[in-house]
Amino acid sequence: MKTLPPPTEGLDLLTSAVLLFDADQRVCYANPAAENLLESSAKSLAGHTLAELFVNGDELVTMFEQAVAHQFADKRVDMMLERPGRDPLHVHVVVAALDSRERPVLIELRENVQQLKLDREERLLDQSQANKELIRNLAHEIKNPLGGIRGAAQLLELELPERHLKELREYTQVIIKEADRLQTLVDRLLAPHRHPHIVGDVNIHEVFERVRSLILAEFPNGLTIHRDYDLSVPEFRGDKEQLIQAVLNIAHNAAQALSERIAAGDALLIFQTRVARQVTIAKARYRLALDLHIIDNGPGIPTDIQDRIFYPLVSGRDGGSGLGLTLAQTFVQQHLGMIECESRPGHTDFRILIPLP
Questions:
Q1: DSSP secondary structure letters along 226-256
Q2: pLDDT tens string 232-270
Q3: Which residues contact 319 (CB under 8 A, 6 or more apart)?
Q4: Which whole number is the average pLDDT over 27-56?
Q5: DSSP label at 326?
Q6: Which of 9, 238, 259, 268 could serve as 202's disulfide partner, Cβ 3.0–4.6 Å?
Q7: Residue 215: its pLDDT value, please?
Q8: Nearest partner of 92 among 21, 37, 41, judged by Cα
């Protein structure tokens, strides 16, 4: 006699998280995808109620009761499920009524990656706008007294007595040099707002080739730059110099992070160009977009600053100014685009998306 497969066998193969509940709203089955999503084993999930799994599970409880009462066959809704002591889940929830007394309700959870991306982009845009205003105001507030400090130090140096000129001049020179250093920093902060956006025809491969030559001139040994170009990528209207600076800032940061691998002779940078279709950037939908990647095999960005790397003055490198990525993001945003980053040890990928007409 042919044996029938267990009723949950097919659910084990699904990539979306599936939970089966008994009549008391307790988990009686969780597939492997649910274990991964909820970061708990099926054994530890068993017996837990919806209220125990999710802090804000009231809506799910209501839907559960409606399913048990057969008020619908299935119901779908997007939710953010909060969990005790863990990050919330942005998921698409499907609640289905089953013809079973032992397991009357099935709940399927599909992580809403697109919503997470949109939320992250919205936070990044809001923060970027706040940064621009802060930087512009702060730079102007620093710039005015800085000139006075430098001028006063120069006048003081002229008044120094001849017999003590050599030893005292050292102190005035410190003031002047530090004022000049701060002036350079302020000029860099104001650079994106000071220079006009000069639009012309841009070939993105010319941009990457220019950056490649500059990086290899500075790091001639131990670093390989692999080009993975899609030659069908069209020209577009943009500011070539701004884009060169944006790509250079990212690639230069990557090369500096590869110092140990450069010494070992196996440092790798990958420049990749593609065209993406049906892309959403900053809540706007575009039919086509440039999809550019700068990938390195370095140690990765420290996890504690990964969410803040585009903020001004945040750097993961000793001696770094923390302005390179901020300026790169500003230049790309002036092209209606966005820079994203994914990083883990051995693989850091900066992705530049720029809409095409």
A1: EEE--TTPPPEEE-HHHHHHHHHHHHHHHHH
A2: 999 999 999 889 989 999 999 999 999 999 999 999 999
A3: none
A4: 89
A5: H
A6: 238
A7: 94
A8: 37
